[in-house]
Hints:
Layout: E1 7-10, E2 17-23, E3 26-31, E4 40-43, E5 47-49
Antiparallel strand pairs: 1-2, 1-5, 2-3, 3-4
Amino acid sequence: MFNVDDVVQSKTGGPKMVVLEVKGDTLYCARVDDKEKKEIEVPASSVNLYHEEGDFGVC
Length: 59
């Protein structure tokens, strides 16, 4: 369902995270704004693929 380099976000909100590794139903992610890429372990069932809402860049 998820792949390395996907951008995900918790279903309850929060920061965008990039998937570093996928092991079964566990994702190893890092916040996109974390230069050190500190690994965060999250269940795949707790996140969705990230998508922007609204009309960004439209004047």
